[in-house]
Amino acid sequence: MSVIIILVLIGVVVAGGFLVAFIWAVKSGQYDDIQSPAVRILYDNKEFSENVTESTTEEDKIDNN
Amino acid sequence: MGRKCIHCGADCGTNPVIWDEMPFCCHGCKTVYQILNEKKLDKYYEIQPMSGVKIENVNLGNKYAYLDNNEIADKLIEFSDGGVSRVSLYIPSIHCASCIWLLENLRTLNNGILQSMVNFPKKKVSITYKPSEISLRQLVELLASIHYIPEITLDQLEDKKNKKTDRKLISKIGVAGFSLLNVMAYNFPEYLPGKEHLSTEFVKFFGWMSILLSIPVVFYSASDYYQSAIKGLKHKIINIDVPISLGIFTLFIQSFYDIFLGQGIGYLDSLVGLVFFLLIGKWYQTKTYNALSFDRNYKSYFPIAITIIKSDLSEEIISMSKLKVGNEIIIRNQELIPADSILISDTANIDYSFVTGESIPVGKKRGEVIYAGGRQVGPAIRLKVEKTVEQSYLTQLWNQDSEKNINSNLDSVINKVSNYFTIVILTIASIAGIYWWLSDPSIALFAFTSVLIIACPCALALTIPFTFGNTMRVFGKAGFYIKNTSVIEGLHKIDTIVFDKTGTITHSKSMKAVFVGDKLSKNSLLLIKSLVSQSAHPLSLSIAASIHGNSQAMVENFQEIPSMGITGVVNGVRVNIGSRKFVTGKEDENPNETRVYVFIKDHILGYFKIENKYRSGLDKVVKSLKLKYNLYLISGDNESEKTNLKQIFGDETKLFFNQSPTDKKVFIRKLKEEGRRVMMIGDGLNDAGALLESDVGITIADDVYQFSPACDGIIESSSFYKLHKYLKFINYSMNIVRISFILSFIYNIVGISFAVSGHMTPLLAAVLMPVSSVSVVAFVTFFIRFKGKSLKK
Fold first, then answer.
1. pLDDT in tens, B298-322
2. I need a labelling partner for B419 at 20 to 30 A (CA). Which of A53, B58, B594, B783 fits?
3. Interface mutation target, options B51, B101, B178, B210, chain A, most CBs of A under 10 Å
4. Which of these three, B353, B368, B387, is where a domain ends?
5. pTM reported for the whole predicted model
C-alpha cells in the first residue's frame, strides 16, 4: 500500500478526533453562550472573600510585582 | 447640567445625594455603591463606568415571602443535593460587562453563595449556593438590593428547555464541515492537469473514502430537509426542501454509481459543499433574540404566589395555581391582582396601566369588581376572588390559540417559487432524457440526472435565509426586534395598519399639563409645584414637570386622599389640588377630559387640562404611511383627543374610541374578513387579543425586556419615529430577494444548458455550485448591510 494512503487514513483519524471533540463541546453546552466567556476571560482571577483584608490585598500586590 | 451619578450615570439634578464626596442621583444608587464599596467590589465601576441599574426605591417588604414556601421554591430550584442547590434566575437588567463581573462575584457578598455564572444572551444567572446559609428568598433579596431584580413568573416555572435543537444544528454543521474539507482534498487531484497519471488504485481509494465520509452528511446532516420535504408533500405543497432533497439523492446515487463502476470520482464534493452551505444559511436564519420573549401569555405577568386569609384569619402564602373562587386575598402596594375579584376593603386605588396603558389610577369602592391585571397603589386591600385566574376577563382574551403561525409558512415566497422551479426542472430533465434516449441512449440517464444535479436550488435556498437574516440583524441594531424571519414576509404583505392610542402613539408615562384659567402668578406656581412634588401620583408628576424652576416651599399637613386629590399648607397658605369633586364639591361635568382643579387660599384658580403627549415623529410616520396603507386608530380611551388626532390622521382615516379589548379583537377580525392584511401596533395587555388576531402584531415597549404581550415584533419606543422606514426597508429587502432569484436563475440556465447537451462534468459542478451560492450570499449581505446603515440614524 502506498504511503499516501496511510497518510490519508491518519489524516482522517486525526480530523475525526477533532470532530468528536467538537461534538462533545457542543453537547456539553459550550456553544450555548458565546458572549459572556469572551468578557469573563478579561477579569482578574483574584479571589474575593470575607477574609480579604487590607493587608492581604497589599501582599497580593507585592506578589504580583 | 449637574453632575452625573457615579452608579447609574443619570443626571443628578440640583440636589445630588453626596456620599464619600461622590454624587448620586438618588438614595437607591448610593446604597448599592455603599454595599459594593464595603465588600471591595468597587471594580464594578471601573469596568464600565456609570453602568449601574437605577431604581429609586427598593422596598421589598414581603414581596418575596412566597419563596419561603417550599413547594414554590422547589419549582424554581434546578438541582439540590448534599446541602448545595442551584437556581437559574432571569434578570432583565443584565446589560454590560460590569454586570457579568459583579454577578459572578456574588460570593463576595454572601458566604453561602458558592458560584454564580451569567448567561449573557439569555440574561440569566445560574447560582450555586448552600441553602443552610442563605435561603432562596434571601438570595433573591440580595440580588434586588444591588438592583439586579430577578423576574420570577408563573411562566418560567413551567418553562420547557428547547435549546437542544440549536445544539443539533451546530453538530450537523460540524459534521458537514469535516466531511467537506476531506472530500474536497480527495477530489482535488481530479481537477489538475496530468490527472491521467494518477493510478486507478488511488482514484478508487479516494472515491470510496469520499462515499464513506459523505454518508453521515447525507443521512445525518441533511436529514431535516427530507423530513420537511415529506411533510410538505403530505400537505400537497412542494416546498423548497423537495428540490433540495431530490438534488441531494440524485447527486449521491449518481456519484455512487460512477465510483462503483470506476467511471470517475463523482460529485460528492459538490454534494457535501451544498449541504454545508445550506446548513450555514439555516443557522444564520435561526439567530433569535434569546432574552426577548415574543410568546408571553398572561402567565408571564402574574405573580407566582398570593397571600390568602384563611377562615381562622391567619395568612398563608399559596401558589397561584391553588387559588380558588371564594378565597379572600390580600393585595399590597404595587402588587398585581391575579383574578377578577370583589373589593372587601372600603376603598382601593387601582392602576390599570398594565392592562389599558392608562396611567391614572382609578378609585374603587367596597363591593365593586376589580379585574385581573390591575395593580393596587396605596395601602393593602382585601379582595374576594370571583373567578379563577384562567377564567378572568383579560386572561381569556389571549388564551385562544392563534392560527396565523401555521398559515404563514404555506404561502411564503420561497414555496411558491420552488413549486414552479421543481416542475420546470423535472420537465426539462425529462425532455432532455427522452431526447437523448431517442438519439443516443447511452447518455440518456446521465442527461436526466445531470439536469437535476446542476439545477440544485442551492443559491435559491440561500437567498431567503441570508436576506431576511441580515434584515433581522439590521432591524435589531435599529431598535426593532422581530420574532423570526417569516415576520418579514408578513410585513411585506400588509395593507392596513391599526394603531392603539395610549402608550403606542402617546407616551404612557408622561402627560402634558396645560393650565386653563387666569395666568398663574409666580407665587401660585411655586405653591402648586411644592405641593405636587410631595405626591407620586402620575397626575402630580406631570403637573410638576410642567412648572419650571427648582425652588421649593415648606409643605405642612400634607395629605393624599386616594382618587380625590392632595391637600396641604404651603408657606402658610392652604392649597388643594385634585378632582372637581374634591376641590369644588360639585360632580365632574366633562368625563371626556382629565382635569385637575387648583384651590389656593380661598378661591379656585382654574384647572390643569391633562393631555396626552404624542411620540415625537408621529406626524411624519403617519404622513408617510398614509400614502400606502389604510390607517386606523382604535383606542380604549374617551374622545377627548379626537380633534388632535383628526389633525394628525386626516379625515379619511377612521378613528374609534371607547373600544374594549374584545372590540379591538373583533375589529381586527372584521378587517381580515374583508380581505385586508392587517398590522396591529399596540402596547398593553388590552391589545393582546388584537395583536394575536392580526397578521402581524407589533408591540411598542419602553423596556424591550419587560412587559410586552405576545407579538411578532417589538419596537423600542425611542425608535417609533422610524416605523415607516422599517416598512420601506422591508420592500427593499424583497427587491433584493427578487434580484437574487434572477441571479440564481441565470446560473441555473447556464448549468442546465451544459447538462441537457450531455456535457456535465464533476469539475463544472464543483465550480458552478459553490460560486453561485457564495455570490448570492455575498450579494444580499452586502446590499442589506449597506442600506441598513441608513436605518440606524
1. 666 676 778 888 888 788 888 777 8
2. B783
3. B178
4. B387
5. 0.77
Bridge partners of B781, per DSSP, are: none
Which of A11, A18, A48 comes nearest B105 by C-beta?
A48
Chain A residue at shortest CA distance from B118: A36
CATH code: domain of residue B545: 3.40.1110.10
**By the 8 A CB rule, do B335 and B376 touch?**
yes
Span B12-41, pLDDT tens digits:
766 677 877 788 877 778 888 888 888 778
Q: Do B144 and B246 fall into the same domain?
A: no
User: Is B174 in contact with A26 (Cβ distance < 8 A)?
Assistant: yes
State the residue range of the domain holding B12.
1-41
Sort out which chain A residues have CB atoms less than 8 A from B175's CB and list them: 19, 23
Q: What is the ipTM of this complex?
A: 0.73
Hey, what's the torsion of the CAs at B706, B709, B711, B715, to 10 degrees? Answer: -40
Going by the DSSP 8-state scheme, the letter that residue B4 receives in this structure is B
Of B41, B100, B108, the CB nearest to A36: B100
Long-range pairs for B251-259: beta carbons < 8 A, 24 or more residues apart? B251/B453, B251/B456, B252/B214, B252/B218, B253/B449, B254/B449, B254/B450, B254/B453, B255/B210, B255/B211, B255/B214, B256/B211, B258/B207, B259/B204, B259/B207, B259/B208, B259/B210, B259/B211
Total tally of structural domains belonging to chain B: 6
Q: Which of A5, A31, A49 sits opposite B205 (nearest CB)?
A: A5
Instruction: Write out pLDDT tens, residues B498-507.
Output: 998 877 888 7
